[in-house]
Task: inverse folding
């Protein structure tokens, strides 16, 4: 895993106002919207291919990093997002056929319900695009494909430090859902995976009115207090992503959206099914990516620490 001490892929907030896209003439809001669209495309294709959440998270991370060094004006987000999916599926050993990835990307980009034939022009164009863009993506990423995600720390926290695993089941599901939705933000470029995991847990605790000190004892205080400012910043950014989607004004972590029932079953490998994600707090303000919420993932790669 990449050490969080390695600052190559971490940026200060002011650096987001001088990205290659903005230097080439795009406004900050347009770039932000393009990032959202690219991540949404990754999620749609990933769900269609039944990719593990970890693979989609890696693809999203590659995508966010790419556009800190390249411009949206020069490279279409569909092309880069598709290539990130392909590269992440190899990096995380998700064993998807290249042909299936190409077909899924072409189908979702064209917004078609029926599969695209692998002899069609659309298929050939997407195939060539992904092959061409992969080399560019690897060069832009400096061939640094070892990544770390918040999920790992979240699982360690719940598996080893939670006092009552049965009572905290919902807390685990909601925190996981907030980590999933943090992929739509640039938190992976500004905060370490540990901070993002703690922020997601903090927001989940607020949402469920759960006292985290009761759930995790002294370990929560020891984790929270040294990083309080960073955790609050990350939590605010997670919440801002919902507010931007729903066009609401203002923010309060003490007034979370009411009424959600996140509660689908976990898979044997310890990861929530997509049902848990789509029935999470995210569903209140974010788009559902066209997948049956009762349909589980294939779970072909364990997340267990």
Result:
């Amino acid at each position: 895993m990449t050490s969080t001490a390695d600052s190559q892929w971490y940026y200060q907030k002011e650096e987001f106002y001088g990205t290659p896209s903005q230097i080439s003439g795009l406004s900050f809001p347009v770039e932000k919207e393009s990032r959202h669209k690219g991540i949404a495309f990754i999620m749609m294709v990933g769900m269609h291919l039944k990719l593990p959440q970890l693979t989609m998270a890696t693809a999203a991370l590659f995508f966010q990093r790419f556009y800190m060094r390249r411009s949206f004006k020069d490279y279409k987000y569909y092309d880069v997002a598709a290539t990130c999916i392909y590269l992440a599926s190899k990096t995380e050993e998700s064993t998807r056929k290249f042909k299936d990835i190409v077909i899924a990307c072409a189908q979702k980009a064209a917004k078609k319900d029926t599969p695209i034939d692998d002899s069609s022009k659309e298929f050939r164009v997407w195939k060539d695009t992904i092959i061409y863009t992969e080399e560019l993506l690897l060069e832009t990423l400096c061939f640094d494909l070892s990544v770390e995600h918040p999920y790992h720390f979240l699982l360690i926290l719940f598996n080893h430090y939670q006092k009552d695993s049965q009572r905290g089941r919902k807390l685990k599901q909601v925190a996981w859902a907030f980590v999933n939705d943090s992929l739509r933000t640039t938190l992976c470029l500004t905060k370490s995976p540990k901070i993002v995991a703690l922020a997601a847990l903090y927001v989940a605790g607020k949402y469920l009115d759960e006292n985290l000190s009761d759930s995790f004892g002294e370990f929560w205080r020891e984790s929270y207090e040294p990083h309080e400012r960073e955790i609050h910043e990350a939590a605010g950014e997670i919440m801002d992503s919902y507010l931007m989607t729903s066009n609401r004004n203002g923010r309060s972590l003490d007034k979370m959206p009411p009424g959600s029932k996140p509660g689908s079953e976990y898979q044997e490998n310890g990861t929530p099914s997509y049902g848990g994600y789509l029935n999470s707090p995210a569903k209140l303000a974010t788009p559902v990516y066209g997948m049956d919420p009762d349909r589980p993932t294939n779970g072909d790669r364990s997340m267990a620490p």
About this structure: Residues 1-5, 247-305 have pLDDT under 50 and may be disordered. The radius of gyration is 19 Å. The domain at 17-140 is CATH 1.10.472.10 (Cyclin A; domain 1).
